[in-house]
Structure formats: C-alpha cells, structure tokens
Amino acid sequence: MGMVNEEFDRTFLGLMEDGDIDGTISYATDFVHTAGNGCEEIRMWMAAMGAAGGAPYRRTYYRAAHDWYTGIGTARLGQINMRKVDGWQTLATKPIDQPIDLAA
User: Fold this and answer.
1) How confident is the model over 1-14, as a mean pLDDT?
2) Which of 74, 77, 89, 103 could lock 61 by a disulfide, CB 3.0 to 4.6 Å apart?
C-alpha cells in the first residue's frame, strides 16, 4: 500500500478553487508522481473541471483518510448549461438553478 500526500491534494484543490485551469494542469502534470497512492481521481477532477466549462469550483469537504490510503473530497461546481440538440426535447427546458455536487 501507499501513502496519502495531503499537501498535494490541498494544493491541487486550491488551484481548482482559484479557477486556475493552466496552473491546475501544470501542477498535476509536474507533481502527480508525488501525489501518493495511485492518485487516479486526479483524472476525474480534471475531467469534471473541463466539463464544467469554467464554472466556479468550491470544495465542500476534504479529509486525508490515512487508514484507507486515500484522500476523500467532495466539491460543488456551478451550473453546467446544456444546449439543445435536434431531437433531444429534454434539453429544450431550462437547466435547474442548482450547482452540481461531485465526490471522489
């Protein structure tokens, strides 16, 4: 088993909170090898950041769970607006006015 690098996790999440897309990508690229046990969720966080299209990110919870060899976090991204595609009537309605919650 590996370890949890809480400093890496908090720095990475902080860059996301700052809205620093380039900094987040650079940090993940340059320091993922120091991130701890696997760090597979970094891909998910970055995909969510891209899917959110620049919507504000807010960390709602983070805990380094050393007994589980992982960091656990949840976040809230602002509304993701979808565009109507011909034939997709469900996308014709206005999106909800609530943020989307994510966890990893």
Assistant:
1) 86
2) 74
CA pair distance 26, 32, nearest whole angstrom: 10
Each residue of 76-93: pLDDT tens digit?
887 545 555 555 555 555
H or E, element range at 100 = strand 100-103
Whose tokens are 């565009």? That residue is 83
Q: Read off the amino acid at residue 41.
A: E
Give, in order, the Cα–Cα distances in Å from 89 to each of 3, 77, 97. Answer: 48, 25, 19
Q: Which amino acid is at 95?
A: P
Work out the burial of residue 57: count CB atoms within 10 Å of its CB; fewer than 13 is exposed, 13-18 middle, 19 or more buried. buried
Please name every residue paired with 72 in a beta bridge, in sequence order, or none if there are none: 63
User: Mapping DSSP to helix (H, G, I), strand (E, B) and coil, where does residue 35 land?
Assistant: coil
> Which two structure tokens, joined as six digits, stand for 80?
């993701």
Q: What gap in Å lies between CA 103 and CA 96, rounded to an integer?
A: 20
Instruction: Give the predicted TM-score (pTM) of the model.
Output: 0.69
